[in-house]
Design brief:
Blueprint (H helix, E strand, L loop, with lengths): L1 H23 L2 H6 L2 H4 L7 H5 L3 H37 L5 H32 L2 H45 L1 H4 L10
Length: 189
């Protein structure tokens, strides 16, 4: 189940990654971007790195609009089936048969949502050039690597780092001279 959730998350992120920012970007904005971003440097906006043409952006927008109503209906069904399952599980003595039925309904809704996301991704990928698909794969690998590293850190480690950063910031505010780099003292020989 966890693997499916990660797959769903990755696919949803891909669709949003490709389509959402690209939809709002105009050709003038893309032309005004710095040359490094247009060439696809890894430190820029991922959508700009794909260097989508105006025609590609319009095709992606059309794909997303075609599926918008169906996607909304599917997402509503997922919410409803998950809520129905929660209601059954929260009852004082849930019947196993009812729980099984609610799980099947929730699984079916989630499978339909996954199907919609995958088909949308396939259609969007068809719009991209070979070079753009290759770059997209590379960007996804990088994002997955970052996600894995964050998962390895665990919530306790992230909290510790945040608290440490706050502590350092507070110390800089209280003792501003410590934050200034000390001058090198001459060495007496």
């Amino acid at each position: 189940m966890n693997h499916h959730r990660q797959l769903l998350t990755a696919l949803a992120a891909l669709v949003l990654f490709i389509a959402a920012p690209a939809i709002g970007q105009t050709a003038q904005q893309q032309q005004a971007a710095s040359p490094a971003l247009q060439q696809g440097s890894l430190d820029g906006d991922p959508i700009r790195q794909l260097n989508l043409t105006a025609e590609q952006r319009e095709q992606i927008r059309t794909i997303r609009q075609q599926n918008q109503k169906e996607r909304a209906a599917i997402n509503e069904r997922v919410r409803e089936t998950n809520q129905a399952l929660e209601v059954v599980l929260e009852s004082d003595s849930p019947e196993e048969a009812v729980v099984e039925q609610r799980m099947r309904e929730a699984s079916s809704a989630q499978a339909e949502a996954m199907r919609m996301r995958i088909l949308t991704e396939v259609r969007i990928r068809r719009v991209l050039t070979l070079e753009q698909r290759s770059l997209l794969r590379s960007l996804r690998r990088q994002a997955n690597q970052i996600r894995r590293e964050r998962q390895l850190d665990g919530p306790g480690e992230r909290l510790r780092r945040r608290l440490e950063q706050r502590s350092l910031q507070q110390e800089r505010e209280l003792f501003p001279r410590r934050a200034v780099q000390k001058r090198a003292r001459p060495v007496i020989q």
